Amino acid sequence: MLRRLLPALIVVLWGCSSDDGSSGSDGGFTLGKSAQVLVTPNPISFSSTDVGSVSEIEIRIENTSQPGAANSAELRLELPYLKKKSEDFTLELPKEMVIQPGDFTTMKVIYHPSDAVYDNDFLVIDYLKSDKAIEVPIFTLSQTGILKVNPDPIYFGAVNGGATQVIDVAISNLGSKVVDVGVTGLSAAASPDYSIDAVYASTDGTCNGAESSAAVQAPHTLAPSGGTYCVALSYSPFGGGSDLGKLVVYPPYDPEAPNIVPHAEVIIQGQEVGPEIDFYPESILNFEAVAIGEEKVMSFIVKNDGSTPLILDGIKKANEQSPAWAAIEIITQIAPGTSLEAIGNDNLEVQVRFKPTQSYPITYGPLGYIQVDSNDGDEAQAYVTVFGQVASPKLKLTPPDIVDFGIVGPGTVSERKFTLTNVGTVDLNVEYIQIGDNLTGEFSIKDPAGLANGGTIKAGDFAPLTLLFTHGGGNPGPVLGSIDFKTSDPMAPTQVTLKATRSDTLKCVIDLQPVKLNYGTVPYGFEKTLTMNVVNVGSAPCSWKKATINDGLEVNLFGGGGCSPGNSTKSSKFEIMNSMPGFKDYLKPGMSFPLEIKYAPEANFWDSAFGDAEFFSFGGLVQVTMYDFYQDPNGKEIVAPESTTGPLGEAYNCNVVGKSGVANIAAIPGDIDFGLTTLGCFSKTHTVTIYNTGKAPLSLCNVKLKGCGPEFKLKNVPAIPPCADNQGGLQLVQGQPITVDVVYAPQDLGKDGCTLVVESTDIDTPAVIIPLKGSGTLDDEQTDIFVQGTGQEVDVLFVVDNSGSMSEEQNSLASNFGSFVSAAQMWSTNYQIGVVSTDMEEFNDMRGRLLGDPRYVGPAQVNQFKGNVKVGDNGSGTEQGLVAAQTALSMPLVANPDNPKVCTTNADCNKPLECVPAVDSNNSYCGGWNMGFLRKNAALEIVFVSDEEDSSPAALNFYIDFFKALKGFANDNLFHAHAIVGDKGNGCDGPGGSAAAGNRYIDLAQQTGGKFHSICDANWAQKLKDIGEAAFGLKVQFFLTRPAIPNTVTVTVDGKACNNGWEYKNDSNSVIFAENAACMPQEGQKVEIYYKVLCYSE
Predict the structure, then answer these.
(1) Both 418 and 330 in a single domain?
(2) What is the DSSP string of 395-444?
(3) Which pLDDT belongs to residue 972?
(4) Are the beta carbons of 435 and 469 closer than 8 angstroms?
(5) Which of 446, 467, 497, 668 is positioned for an S-S bond with 402, CB 3.0–4.6 A?
């Protein structure tokens, strides 16, 4: 049951300040000492006023602080003004500009319309010393009409849980003029137990059910003197108790109006009756950590919060989530037929035991669920979630196998970190830790992190030791030793190898790892960033000077390498994205620095020189120059890589290469960012899915890590036979992808990067490159901060069939579009809506491109959608809606440069970028044709409209994964696909026309939580309204930046603790608010989410 408070009709604005004028802790207006300000009416709403006439409304501004009170203060007004400077309003200024406590002043807003359309503005009232003004909305109406809602209020009375009751509500115009009516809907705070089943016409002023009446589509007009339409309002109570809401009648959507003043609002009330099961104190048991051989008993109370007896039918363990579920025992059994009386002290205590007899994998999710069966009409199976852990320490070592001090020159010291982390659930006892094998005495512990004589590492904590190797003057070569320790983790190792390499000279030596970066095939306009590590393999520190990059040819045209050195970081295809800090001796021996290098291929001379250059290899040369101040006090330049010698003299081999073209092999996701991961922990495991997107068979030859240190690890790689002469390997069949897992465990602080390489027998793309990156940190807790917008950002892509049979459906879609955006209007959603066709034939130059002018519409251009959606009916009869959507949302069409170049023609842009007209200005910019449409933080909704089955080339699962990957696989709230197509199976034939089955579209909608509506149903308004309500609304899902331990998550909204009305979703690592919760974030409110970071074990 979701209870709500109805909003107040008048808002009191509070403000306070200290004596010196500084802001008080609760924010608000700074008005002297302390004041309460009341402005009425708020909002200011003018009735219909004829053109040439004048209406005026008196505004009262009151200082409601108590006279004589210690903290009261006078209010000093500044001149009020109109925010939008509308010429149809004027102000009569206040009679008094200083208002004493308990007193008030008045002013007037005067309305003199120049035309018959709506007008709106804001009256801005400011105060001396205030830090925020009061903005009072001003609205007008364009007609005179009086709406009467019957019944008023709408009272359902008592309804059994699980049952549904319908009331037909009559809405009549009792005025003398026509009333323009927009959406009739439920208020945002209404209980979800209410829903509108139909809006239908009335011919005699009565409402007798929607079955025999015509549907009414918004917007519509209501005739004067008794014109009536009806709303079928249903109530299906769930959760017990009372439910409240409002039925709201809105005027038509006006994109210029900042807010919409309803024509009418009516209270809805209902009460659920019948049995209602509930658990006390909550439906969660958390045993926390219990040691092996011990037991812990907890209990919960089963209660009946309903109005009739609750009959219990049994209790059992259900839905095992962890092997530790075997250690859970339900002590109290419930006999079938057990009765609990209505709302009283009649309850049942259930005891549950957790008794682990062995070690189980550590889990932070539930162990399982306890199911209680009853006669509760809306919750016949109710569940208690059970959490618990086996209490045991677990040692994690970083690095795990060997501490390598690198090359150490004479008289110098090399320093390394060695970290012990307790990823278990109880304290880890360290009996001792010491240097073991140390024949030369060169290894030592500089900082034992408090463990010199043993000690304790608490659960979730770590101890970072500092180890040293001091060159003792021995012969050059390797030196081995060990660090020995003993802990209370019986499964942990007791020794880690130490290694150093003595050198007899001090010099800086630079190596670039890997030797060559291979970007694989990247389409024109797309970009990919890989990491090349600058490693000091010498015995002395190195100091940064520069890094340069030049274009070159990977092909060996001139006998030597195909690249040449340069003096800048400019290249037409490759770009160095960062730079090493310029501190002297920054790069110590053994240290590395990650250079991030971006590959963004463009068309150039080689396209014409070599014909079809779609799969031509491009290359570049990265050179790093460092200073060595040990060989030369003035700094000797050290360059890597060094040149080779060819027939024409000094030459270089390219160390960055890439191709450009379209591959038949694809991997999703295309890159993986593990984000911040605490030292001593593993990241969350990421799955890479490898597809054959072509028609011909391919073989997978190898999956490997390249350029990676011990931080990255592959898991669950299938057995892959070797390939030779394009034979062998593991067959990759369309529709049957292969998956591999990759995980990250940082060994030190800072960034790490390398690549996952997928090799295959695809002639054009023998290797797919997936960049991997992550960062190590010591922080084990996090606070993420968000600010709620006016409504969530939503990008909506309509994919419309433009074959010969679709003209009528396009007209219906255009005519009823207002029903779709009505939900966005209610939530002030920041939406963008674009249209593409299903025609993907090669001769169609607009395939995958947004159609219409502007290319996509927002709230300010919504009426232009009606033209955009009429895509014509002369397109291909082979409808390919899925690949059309994929193309529209892929590079190069969505290429959106950070600083796009202003242009006038395509000649001003580098291929494949083109000169694209901006949606919100008269300028044009170089970019992909669909640039600006797909926003990073916006939700994505795709609506497919077709009377034929999809004929896209790849298997359905590929498109499902592609669309989900755009917003993240676990982020269910950020992507849905919807289908207005023919019914599944045999298609359909109805009043809306006939259509073949759209099975692939329907399956996509079902697997992404979207809506399906038959294209043969003539009620387009209801179809679009249903999809719109699913697409739009305030942002309810907030994604955390790091993995959270579920029971540590706390939420603060607008500075106040929010203890319920939200849930943490482990699969998407996000907090989701209930839309009707008391602390659901509203526009402008700050949301702070604190949590301890989850430490994954491998």
Answers:
(1) no
(2) EEEESSSEEEEEEE-TT-EEEEEEEEEE-SSSPEEEEEEEE---TTS-EE
(3) 64
(4) no
(5) 497
Q: Check whether residue 572 and residue 711 sit in a common domain.
A: no
Please name the helix (run of DSSP H) or strand (run of DSSP E) that holds residue 820, with its range, or none: helix 817-827
Q: Classify the phi-psi angles of 926: left when phi > 0, otherwise alpha if psi is within -120 to 50, otherwise beta.
A: beta
CB 134 within 8 A of CB 124: yes
Question: Are residues 1009 and 889 part of one domain?
Answer: yes
Query: In the numeric block, which tokens belong to residue 297?
Result: 């008993």
Same domain, 495 and 401: yes
Q: Do residue 811 and residue 884 come from a single domain? A: yes
**228: Cα separation from own chain's centroid:** 44
Q: Is-contact 944 992, C-beta < 8 A?
A: no
266 in Cβ contact with 152 (< 8 Å): yes
Long-range pairs for 67-72 at CB < 8 Å and ≥24 separation? 67/100, 67/101, 67/102, 68/101, 69/101, 71/16, 71/33, 71/34, 72/33, 72/34, 72/35, 72/101
Q: Is the pTM of this model over 0.70?
A: no
Q: Of all helices (H) and strands (E), which one includes residue 15?
A: strand 13-16
Residues 987 and 1000 in one domain: yes
Q: Does 237 fall in a domain?
A: yes
4, pLDDT greater than 60: no
H/E stretch holding 964: helix 956-967
Q: In Å, what is the CA distance from 763 to each residue of 73, 698, 725, 792? A: 81, 10, 11, 44
CA 822 to chain centroid, in Å, comes to 24
Domain of residue 1047 covers: 1036-1092
The pair of three-digit structure tokens given for residue 739, joined into one six-digit string: 């998956």
pLDDT of 468 over the 70 cut: yes
Distance CA 442, CA 413 (A): 9
Taking the C-alpha atoms of residue 510 and residue 587, their distance in angstroms, rounded to an integer, is: 10
Last-in-domain residue among 333, 359, 391: 391
pLDDT higher than 90, residue 325 = yes
Tell me the per-residue pLDDT of 1033-1080, one tens digit each, with 9 for 90 and over: 566 778 788 888 888 999 999 889 998 889 888 767 788 888 778 888
CA angle, residues 514, 746, 538, in degrees to nearest 5: 45
- Residue 41's contacts (CB-CB under 8 Å, 6 or more residues apart) are 57, 59
Cβ pair 931, 924 in contact under 8 A = no
Residue 72: inside a domain: yes
Residue 323 carries which side chain, given as an amino acid letter? P
Half-sphere exposure of 358 (CA within 13 A, CB side): 6
For the segment 113-133, the average pLDDT, to the nearest whole number, is: 75
Rounded to whole angstroms, the maximal C-alpha distance in the chain is 108
What is the distance between the alpha carbons of residues 247 and 156, in angstroms, rounded to a whole number?
13
How many residues are listed for the chain in this entry?
1098
Q: Is residue 4 part of a domain?
A: no
Token reading at 1050: 């706390």
What mean pLDDT is reported for the chain? 81
Cα distances (angstroms) measured from residue 938 to each of 789, 825, 881, 921, 966: 11, 17, 22, 22, 11
Q: Could you give the number of structural domains in the chain? A: 9
**Torsion, Cα of 1038, 1039, 1041, 1042 (10° steps):** 120
Contacts 24+ apart (CB under 8 A), 640-649: 640/510, 640/511, 640/512, 640/534, 641/512, 641/515, 643/565, 644/560, 644/561, 645/560, 646/558, 646/559, 646/560, 646/561, 647/558, 647/559, 647/560, 648/558, 648/559, 648/560, 649/560
Cα–Cα dist 526/1040, whole Å: 28
CATH code of 414's domain? 2.60.40.10
**What is the arrangement of strands in the sheet containing 165-173, beginning at the earlier edge strand?**
147-150, 165-173, 227-235, 194-201
The answer to whether residues 381 and 440 belong to one domain is no
Mean pLDDT throughout 206-227?
88
Token pair 């809907």 is at which residue?
Answer: 185
pLDDT exceeds cutoff 50 at 17 = no
**In terms of domains, do 975 and 832 share one?**
yes
Domain final residue pick, 606, 628, 659: 659
